[in-house]
Amino acid sequence: MKLPTLIVAPAVELVDGNGQVVDVHAGKRTLLAFFRDTTCPFCNFRIFELTQRHAELSAAGLEIIAVFASTPNEVARFTRLRPRPFRVVADPADLAYRAYGIQRSFAGKLHAVFFRTREWLTGMRAAGWLQALRSLGGLGTNNLLPADFLIDESGYIRDVHYGEDAGDHIPFERIERFLAHPAPTRQ
User: Fold this and answer.
1) Pairing of β 157-162 and β 21-23
2) What is the pLDDT of residues 82-128, one digit of tens each?
3) How far apart are CA 131 and CA 37, in angstroms?
């Protein structure tokens, strides 16, 4: 079930690529971004975009947590090969995916391959051609669709974006709007 806005973000505890526990909790504005797996070309494209914009987003007060349905070893390898300036976590048991209502769609995966060719090819290059080809260019990866949650410093979900296809993430304009406006006070 998809989550609405203006509810407290579900508490989840995950492990990053360094074996450190990562809690999604109140206290900092957070982009919680869900991805398929570390070999997914679309995921690698978006991770590249987040890496390129990290300094700007971090300076505006945003913490980024990227969640992959990969094993801790796969996430550790991924971050060792391409270090990221934000937390990258593993959720191989789909605990966070279930808590946040992440959807699955084989049709959504195929749609992205045919209609997001630029992102697919750029992501294949970012993932490493050999690694990406092992996952059949993303076709062999799971059917999870991406989702993004903007969580305010009080722990409330302020914006939700459930991807319609494998390459559909929250637009950066929405992230910028979220950062430009202070969270409403609660009484």
Assistant:
1) unpaired
2) 899 999 999 999 999 999 999 998 888 878 877 876 776 677 666 66
3) 12
- For residue 21, what pLDDT is reported? 87
Distance, CA of 30 to CA of 69 (rounded, Å): 19
Q: Kindly list the domain boundaries of the chain, sorted by start residue.
A: 13-180
Tell me the backbone φ, ψ of residue 68, rounded to 5 degrees.
-120, 145
Burial (CB count within 10 angstroms: exposed 0-12, middle 13-18, buried 19+), residue 122: middle
Options 3.10.450.50, 3.90.180.10, 3.40.30.10, 3.30.565.10; CATH of 13-180: 3.40.30.10
pLDDT at residue 186, rounded to an integer: 54
Tell me which residues of the chain have a pLDDT lower than 50: 136-138, 187
Residue with tokens 């987003």, as numbered in its chain: 57
In angstroms, how far is CA 163 from the centroid of its own chain? 11
